[in-house]
Amino acid sequence: MGKETTTHWVIAAALLALAAPPVRAQLGGILPVDPLGTVDQVRETVRDLTDTTLAPAEAAVGDARQLAQNRLKRLTRFVSNNRDAVEWDDRHQAAVRGEVLLLDPDPEAIGVARRAGYAVLEQGRVEGLDVPYARLRVPDGKPLARALKDLRKALPGRDICADQIHFQAGKALDVSHAKGSSGALPRGGTVGVIDGGIGESERLAAQRGFANGAPRTSEHASAIASLLTGAGTAHIYGADVYGTDPAGGNALAIARALGWMQQQGVPVVSISLVGPANPLLARAIDAARRKGMVVVAAVGNDGAAAPPAYPASYPGVIAVTGVDGAGRVLIEAGRAAHLDYAAPGADMSALVPGKGRMDLRGTSFAAPLAASRIAARRMEPGSVTVALKAVDSEAVAASRRTGRGIVCNICRSGL
Question: Which of 14, 46, 323, 374 has an alpha carbon within 20 to 30 A of 296's alpha carbon?
Fold first, then answer.
């Protein structure tokens, strides 16, 4: 066995030994035996550790372990602090308390659910996307995880899921930032942002709330709007899926926001949120794509050993990771089932209403910059495929860790 191979397996063993046991202990053993999916994912991680774009392997092992632990601690704290609105589902994901979603409901299925004690809170279709669903209240006193299993048993073969929560994938912080290259590329276009509320923005064409208390200005969403403005995007549509709701960012809210964007004719939508796979949201994104919308999403910031992030991992979604000013992939960048592009995610800043200029770091801020390039190209004649090929022609340094390459480095000069 060669020296490099031996090193990889040592690192893999370290990840398994250091990351998995504390994670299980943190949540009282409720998670599956392999909560991080490390058996399959470490193969990718250990190859990444020797990539020249990363820090030395020893530091990467420590970071991978810490990122995994931090992710589960954040989830546990979030659920604990919002017990009135949030609880664990059967996959140990944070979800709206006491509610399940039934896709393609018909009278027979609704009747079975009602006889089993599930009350119908709402039944309809996601406007603009024509995705049928029903929101059901679980029987009193029954945990969500058990309610999901029982209803699936009563309605075999049906798409039944929790309304899972998605989280923003970036933060503002104090880091140094540098300017990038300059040059001339097409600018303009329209981008929709599904996130929190956007504050003052000269390019904001319309905004709508999809949660209690929305729209409510969010630093995260406002920073994204600032980046889009600096990148030359002409029109921005905002959808606030958080507002003041502790259970904001749920799958149904995001699906509704997508439907509204479709009704507004928004051609490119950027989503810097991460969560687990959800059948309703998957169906909504597929419907939006079939209507011609390009959906761009961040891979998250939980490290390469984290589970694949959604919506970035849904088929056809443009998955984006982040790089720093030197073109290095962020050590905390998450992963998706596929990867399309990288874009600036650090060593840059944005103007945030009430805060002034704030330095940024995270894949949250890479996704809208990639979206800005796609939107600019979509203004040109041709199909979505033609637009994406044009963006491909701009991309540099293509690799397994940057997808088809880094785009929008030029955007740094305008931020």
Answer: 46
